[in-house]
Specification:
The chain is mainly beta. The protein has strands at about 5-10, 10, 20-25, 35-40, 45-50, 55-60, 65-70, 75-80, 90-100, 100-105, 110. Strands 2, 4, 5, 6, 9, 10 and 11 form a seven-stranded mixed β-sheet that branches. A hairpin with a 3-residue loop joins strand 9 and strand 10.
Amino acid sequence: QVQLVQSGGGLVQPGGPLRLSCAASGIMFRIYTMGWYRQAPGKERELVAIITSCGITNYADSVKGRFTISRDNAKNTVYLQMNSLKPEDTAVYYCNAQRAGTIWGQGTQVTVSS
């Protein structure tokens, strides 16, 4: 069964860290470009970060220097390390696998609030 299962997320204070994980199954993970997207209430889903099969990364300007995407091909897992979180980072975060088609994770809520 092809699926992406996310973990992590929750409530964190401004300035704090949080790590999201996304475990893939049913795909040849190492050849996929993996990404993290987010959608805040009333807004469009937006790209946060991607990492290619070769390990090349790209980030939204709003998260550069604060977020780090990484992958562990041995564990079929992609991570998003989020540091210095801001209230405007509050959103539902989705992981994504791209090859010929697109696969989405179930989404996980991240809330940054004091």
